[in-house]
Design brief:
The structure holds 2 protein chains of 2 kinds.
Chain A lengths: L4 E3 L2 E4 L5 E6 L6 E8 L3 E9 L2 E5 L6 E5 L5 E5 L8 E8 L10 E2 L3 E5 L1
Parallel strand pairs in A: 2-11
Antiparallel strand pairs in A: 1-3, 3-8, 4-5, 4-9, 5-6, 7-8, 9-10, 9-11
Chain B lengths: L2 E3 L4 E5 L4 E3 L2 E3 L4 E8 L6 E5 L10 E2 L10 E3 L8 E9 L4 E3 L3 E6 L1
Parallel strand pairs in B: 2-11
Antiparallel strand pairs in B: 1-4, 3-8, 5-6, 5-9, 7-8, 9-10, 9-11
The chains are: A mainly beta, B mainly beta.
Chain lengths: ~120, ~110
């Protein structure tokens, strides 16, 4: 069974630009979560989607947005990039049970560098 | 609000020594707790979850509701245990929140 796939793996942008990251979950997984990972803050929750609906949202500004498609693939977008947005963005999928997200299966991440 | 605290950013032990990675949490209800591990150049992956009460790779973790802790323990550390360890909490149907992680180094 293929794992969680994230694209692109690496990207470099300049301040003010916008970026879209993509995540393909494990087949059959309908829950997708996004995290921002930085050395100082660890893993910070961005949002979680289940069946195309945002189920939970973290404490990030409105510049960070996401969506999920009917095939469970998910995208996240960051507009008006700032230097502080440089990070590894991790996507994880799971078999959401209705209450518990259960085990998260992570992708390798998309490393964003903002210059 | 859900909060997970891992007080040690770095932990270094010798091979064969016991190891304990601390995790304290803040949550008013009954949480679901997890330990995730990231080995060098590998993806973040689940190590264990408290509801399964399993021992994985010799690691165990006991939920102590009185002390609101979920410390990860192993009696005899191995070099291959060197990795980044994250404690995580989910309360009810809320988001899964991670601690900032502890980097464990097991020296030969």
């Amino acid at each position: 069974k293929a794992g969680v796939t994230q694209t692109p793996r690496y990207l470099i942008k300049t301040r003010g630009q916008q970026v879209t990251l993509s995540c393909s979950p494990i087949s059959g997984h309908r829950s997708v979560s996004w995290y921002q990972q930085t050395p100082g803050q660890g893993l910070q929750f961005l949002f979680e989607y289940f069946s195309e609906t945002q189920r939970n949202k973290g404490n990030f500004p409105g510049r960070f947005s996401g969506r999920q498609f009917s095939n469970s693939r998910s995208e996240m977008n960051v507009s008006t990039l700032e230097l502080g947005d440089s990070a590894l963005y991790l996507c994880a999928s799971s078999l959401f049970s209705g209450t518990s997200v259960g085990e998260l299966f992570f992708g390798e991440g998309s490393r964003l560098t903002v210059l | 609000a859900q909060r997970v605290t891992q007080p040690e950013k770095l932990l270094s032990v010798f091979k064969g020594a016991p190891v304990e990675l601390k995790c304290n949490y803040s949550y008013s209800g009954s949480p679901e707790l997890f330990w995730y591990v990231q080995y060098s150049r590998q993806r973040l992956q689940l190590l264990l979850r408290h509801i399964s009460r399993e021992s994985i790779k010799g690691f165990t973790a006991d939920l102590n509701k009185g002390e609101t802790s979920f410390h990860l323990k192993k009696p005899f550390a191995q070099e291959e245990d060197s990795a980044m360890y994250y404690c995580a909490l989910q309360g009810g149907s809320e988001k899964l929140v991670f601690g900032k992680g502890t980097k464990l180094t097991v020296n030969p």
